[in-house]
Design brief:
single chain, 316 residues, mainly alpha, two-stranded antiparallel sheet, 12 helices, 2 strands
């Protein structure tokens, strides 16, 4: 059932990508500013996103948070098209992983659904706002956000232990669970706290994810572990489920606004999904800490580039 649902959603999104007509964004004729033919850009984008997918899995970050700032910095694509493609990249990657995680019993619908509902509603507003604001302003805000995310990755502590505390909101809506941890050979009972603050935080996360096309993969695990005290394994497994709702809500706004172009979106999705599968196989053989440092450096460089480009556009 979950596999059939995933295939149906992906086919529906692909149909939307192919029939979407640019309305409030530049036409596809103004998309490319280089001398390569269209298929050359598509091949380059496929190869680049394949590599990006490998790095995203090993580095433990969402594909959307890497895709938008780095692709907008290295490729001559209009920023609106990159944001629209970024949401669909994040959505398809989450759709491919969420059913397996849900069947395995590690992901928690009780934990993810309230956060996803708040975040998806906010992401619709963020996506609508992002298409209205000038591109230079959005680039400036993206640069600030990406630098802040990279800084958070550097300075934030890793959550190692879950916390069992009384939370009236979590108790009222039944956010709790248990899972078998094979690494220690026993069953772990868990609950969360500060649920109210987490719901408020997801309003900002949703707005940022929709406005910049980042999805919510960059914020799911830190929010669930550092703020709510959920076990790391539960947070990682639930993150994909949350992204399916957050990214899909904002993606329809970009589809309806004509900010999704098949030339960018199709090779990006295919490359990212193949890359994530390769990365999952390579993960046991490499050191994620080294890759995570490389990811942080790439984010800082791309964020600073977006920040400078946005400042130049606003001042000029």
């Amino acid at each position: 059932m979950t596999r059939a649902f995933t295939v149906a959603v992906m086919l529906l999104l692909a149909a939307g990508v192919l029939v979407a007509e640019p309305v409030s964004v530049p036409t596809s004729a103004a998309l490319l500013q280089g001398s390569l033919p269209w298929w050359g850009w598509a091949l380059m984008l496929f190869g680049f996103t394949l590599l990006l997918g490998v790095v995203a899995v090993i580095g433990g970050v969402g594909g959307g948070v890497l895709f938008v700032p780095i692709v907008s910095a290295l490729f001559p694509f209009h920023f609106d098209f990159v944001r629209g493609a970024g949401l669909l990249v994040a959505l398809c990657g989450a759709l491919s992983a969420a059913p397996r995680l849900l069947r395995g019993g590690m992901a928690s619908i009780r934990l993810g659904l309230p956060l996803a509902l708040v975040g998806s509603a906010a992401s619709i507003g963020g996506a609508s706002l992002g298409l209205v604001l000038p591109t230079s302003v959005v680039e400036l805000l993206l640069g600030v956000s990406i630098v802040a995310i990279a800084t958070l990755m550097i300075v934030s502590p890793r959550a190692r232990h879950h916390q069992l505390r009384h939370d009236p909101i979590a108790t009222a809506i039944g956010i709790h669970g248990s899972y078998h941890d094979s690494s220690i050979g026993r069953r772990i009972d868990w609950t969360v706290h500060r649920t109210g603050w987490a719901l408020v935080t997801y309003i900002g996360i949703g707005v940022m994810g929709g406005m910049f096309g980042l999805g919510a993969g960059w914020a799911n695990v830190p929010t669930m572990t550092l703020l709510m005290g959920a076990p790391v394994k539960v947070a990682v497994a639930t993150s994909g489920y949350v992204m399916t709702l957050n990214s899909s809500a904002a993606a329809w706004v970009y589809l309806n606004g004509g900010a999704v172009l098949g030339l960018i979106t199709v090779p990006s999705i295919v490359g990212m999904m193949i890359g994530t599968r390769v990365g999952a196989r390579l993960l046991p053989r490499v050191r994620p800490r080294v890759i995570r440092r490389i990811v942080t450096i790439l984010l800082l460089a791309a964020g600073l580039r977006s920040l400078v480009a946005g400042l130049i556009g606003v001042i000029g």
